[in-house]
């Protein structure tokens, strides 16, 4: 496998980079097991015959349904000899069982250390040692036109290598809702099953995690996208140490501007002309009270740099911020009053402070739960719910929740299983409010609502 070195007109040998990478890229199988759920369905005969059995249920019936087993496949990259593996969050999301198969055929059970939906990254651990790894390179040093290899398991096949070049950097696609996006775009073929695999440079260094296939057909059509290691390195370090990403936010609302103003609204064009801003950047429209930018930045400032690196759009600003934790000091370069100005500020998290955010496990609630029995659902005319079977202090005890309470919803989501509560708890501990709003009822029929404070010292 070779490509031409345009400077010396000599072939660039990619075989060593491919050989080293293949051994450190794994195949991941994620399984969501079949589960029994109780659902409420309408009696089709109720409209014709009424409540002939006197149940007083208004035509509603509870039925047990079996959900099908779901199996997904993807790739992962071994980053440490003792078995830490980076992959995409969407590869292992909601999996009950994770199976990891190495290039040499060995299989291991995977354990999730932490996930970050905002960047679509996840950290998985297998129990082994002396495993092959890929050295982590500097994605910031990548240049458009540089050769890269995409390594993964497309279409559930064994390890496959494709070659291409870096087509663009700092791409934002809008595929993650309010997530961090600053993709490396490549024309190396990335297909289904490549997700979580490695993007490596000609020296065999990991520079990205393959993540997004941009195609109208679901198969490769010339565009693939990878999460740069500049974002990955800090996210994985946080997941390993805290179980949750320590994400710094600037606390602004704004709009990207660039020299090509064809797609910008007329109002923004006029504002850019008035400010005399050139060369792109992020125009600040609002400063969030209590945020990092409060008292430091101003409305109509244009952010044009962070940590000495040029900023032309939101993706580049997000990538710069993603390298930092709350409490870090950063230097921003802004365009203000028709001149450049440097502003130093201390970054905060979404809660407006610099405290460490930990991924809370169920133990923080200090309670035990089980799915409501069919008999209780029949008696209380319920379709689902979680019964609190015991409370021993913890956050639920502090909120006043007692044994016997039936949780119907948490943060607006129906609670059909303990796994549902675990997922909502995980999301809540990483939200700005860090509160679990619980609604439900007691066996007596009395309804109640509680706010469970999840903040940790």
UniProtKB/TrEMBL annotation:
Record-linked SUPFAM superfamilies: PDZ domain-like (SSF50156), Trypsin-like serine proteases (SSF50494)
InterPro entries for this protein: PDZ, PDZ_sf, Peptidase_S1_PA, Peptidase_S1C
All residue ranges annotated as the PDZ domain in the record: 281-338
GO BP term (any one): proteolysis
Transmembrane portions of the chain: none
Signal peptide: none
Pfam family, one: Trypsin_2
Keywords, in A-Z order: Hydrolase, Protease
Gene Ontology terms, MF aspect: serine-type endopeptidase activity
The family this protein is said to belong to: Belongs to the peptidase S1C family.
PANTHER family membership: SERINE PROTEASE FAMILY S1C HTRA-RELATED (PTHR22939), SERINE PROTEASE HTRA2, MITOCHONDRIAL (PTHR22939:SF129)
Record's protein name: Serine protease MucD
